[in-house]
């Protein structure tokens, strides 16, 4: 049984599967960079930045972004080597199958369900908040019970704090984006590219306009003293803030899930991963610095739309509406890439027999794994409707960091077990870079606290129950090797 649990796919088998795939190869390097930016710039920047500044790091949230970027850089270099060497849909799940065996591949695949599905739910909740705020500016107030989770109080634009029944706007956007993904990857990529241009333009305008109105007093002290509790300001607050806003960086690994739809994956995947990461890190640090300079970090606590609050501190009130519209469009692109990544991971798991075959069915006309899209439309909608944003945001961060640790470890294993395999992109300074990636990511996981570790363990335990009850009996690889 142990040998079955540790059974691995060879790189040759993975390449053969890729050649037999039926997904359309239509994505070029700039499509992939755009997909990465589309996923990276979103709720982490526009919503979680305010939460982390108010509760963890204060103005030093800019340093939290630097810490998170360091961990991402190490992991991104490892992802780039894997994606150029194994250009197959499935991301870290596929890489684990080739390096550590089926059981760990299942654990990572199940973890990616948490990362992408719950991540999409987090962003849809943020999308809902910005829509409610924007409509309020035009005198339109949706019923409070229909725009918020029953488990987290929400401060409405007029200052009222409410407990809702269901978050219908969040469900709405998940359904719309899922339907777009079912229609086709090329159409989805074009839509995302347009939104990314709008989103990046607005972030740059926010930085340029807001810089002139920074109040230096808002940055004093830049690192607020710790309250005596780990993670509440001070250097531990910077670390916990990095873990919280790490959610903002998960876009670059979503790029790797589209490897089977890239025209030249060996060349283009590293460009998409590293390129999107560099561009977004620079924008993040500047955005966080300006936002906490415009408004004192304590004012972001519990606020539904912190970026809109910050721009209101400038005399350009017309920009508030423009920023809100662009943020809403930008959050839409994040949901699109998260749901795209999730459906491709589940597609790969289904092709391997670990989940029912129905989820790898490709639509005869649109050539998309539409049943996976449909499943996660329903699954994510439940989280969007009822889960609080801080809870799902932290769950996404710890799931992402866990996947990054495995990918970095996978590079160390592959360099030992398959040193002669062609690597169009090679991670530099191995073993130093993968080891540093593991250390930094584990440190940020530690910073997220015990409650989030427990949620991760519970989620993984559910996954293990499914694996031993269903997946191991239907594994195509185990059937082939017995």
Quick summary of this structure?
The chain has 482 residues and is an all-alpha fold. 69% of the residues lie in helices and 1% in strands.
List the helices and strands and how they pair.
Blueprint lengths: L1 H4 L5 H9 L9 H12 L2 H15 L3 H25 L6 H8 L2 H36 L16 E2 L5 E2 L5 H16 L1 H27 L22 H12 L5 H6 L8 H30 L11 H6 L5 H35 L18 H17 L2 H29 L14 H16 L2 H25 L1 H6 L1
Antiparallel strand pairs: 1-2
What class would the helix/strand composition place it in?
mainly alpha
Give the second-level CATH assignment, the architecture: Up-down Bundle
* CATH fold-level assignment: Amino acid/polyamine transporter I
Rg, Cα atoms, Å: 21 Å
Quaternary structure state of the chains depicted = single chain
How many separate domains make up the residues? Answer: 1
List how many beta strands DSSP finds: 2
Query: Segments where pLDDT lies below 50 for 5+ residues?
Result: none
Strand content: under 5%
In whole angstroms, the N-to-C terminal distance is: 10 Å
Strand order of the largest sheet: 1-2
Query: Roughly what is the average pLDDT, rounded to an integer?
Result: 81
Give the overall form: globular
Percent helix: 55-70%
The profile of the biggest β sheet is: 2 strands, antiparallel
Number of helices: 19
Question: What's the CATH first level?
Answer: Mainly Alpha
SSE sequence, one letter per element: HHHHHHHEEHHHHHHHHHHHH
CATH superfamily: Amino acid/polyamine transporter I
């Amino acid at each position: 049984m142990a040998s079955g649990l540790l059974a691995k796919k060879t790189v040759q088998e993975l390449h053969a599967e890729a050649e037999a795939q039926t997904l359309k190869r239509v994505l070029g390097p700039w499509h992939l960079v755009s997909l990465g930016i589309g996923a990276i710039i979103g709720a982490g920047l526009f919503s979680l930045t305010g939460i982390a500044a108010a509760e963890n790091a204060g103005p030093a949230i800019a340093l939290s972004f630097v810490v998170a970027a360091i961990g991402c850089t190490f992991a991104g270099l490892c992802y780039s080597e894997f994606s150029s060497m194994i250009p197959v849909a499935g991301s870290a799940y596929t890489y684990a199958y080739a390096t550590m065996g089926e059981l760990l591949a299942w654990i990572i695949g199940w973890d990616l369900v948490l990362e992408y599905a719950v991540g999409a739910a987090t962003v849809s909740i943020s999308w809902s908040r910005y829509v409610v705020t924007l409509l309020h500016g035009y005198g339109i107030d949706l019923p409070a019970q229909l725009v918020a989770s029953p488990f987290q109080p929400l401060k409405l634009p007029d200052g009222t704090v409410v407990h809702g029944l269901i978050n219908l706007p969040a469900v709405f956007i998940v359904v719309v984006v899922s339907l777009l993904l079912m229609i086709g990857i090329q159409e989805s990529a074009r839509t995302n590219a347009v939104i990314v241009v709008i989103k990046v333009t607005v972030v740059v305008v926010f930085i340029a306009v807001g810089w002139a109105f920074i109040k230096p007093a808002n940055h004093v002290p830049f690192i607020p003293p710790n309250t005596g509790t780990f993670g509440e300001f001070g250097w531990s607050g910077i670390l916990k803030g990095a873990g919280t806003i790490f959610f903002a960086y998960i876009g670059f690994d979503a790029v790797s899930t589209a490897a089977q739809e890239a025209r030249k994956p060996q060349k283009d995947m590293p460009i998409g991963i590293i390129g999107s990461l560099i561009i977004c890190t620079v924008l993040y640090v500047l955005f966080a610095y300006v936002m906490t300079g415009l408004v004192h970090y304590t004012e972001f606590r519990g606020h539904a739309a912190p970026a809109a609050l910050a721009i209101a501190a400038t005399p350009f009130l017309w920009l508030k509406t423009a920023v809100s519209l662009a943020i809403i469009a930008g959050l839409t692109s994040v949901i699109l890439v998260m749901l795209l990544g999730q459906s491709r991971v589940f597609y790969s798991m289904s092709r391997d027999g670990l989940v029912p075959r129905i989820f790898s069915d490709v639509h005869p006309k649109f050539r998309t794994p539409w049943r996976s899209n449909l499943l996660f439309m329903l699954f994510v909608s439940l989280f969007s409707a009822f889960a609080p944003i801080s809870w799902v945001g932290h769950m996404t961060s710890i799931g992402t960091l866990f996947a990054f640790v495995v990918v970095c470890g996978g590079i160390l294993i592959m360099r030992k077990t398959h040193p002669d395999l062609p690597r169009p992109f090679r991670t530099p300074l191995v073993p130093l870079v993968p080891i540093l990636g593991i250390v930094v990511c584990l440190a940020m996981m530690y910073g997220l606290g015990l409650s989030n570790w427990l949620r991760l363990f519970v989620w993984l335990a559910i996954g293990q129950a499914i694996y031993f009850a269903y997946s191991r009996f239907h594994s195509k690889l185990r059937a082939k090797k017995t």
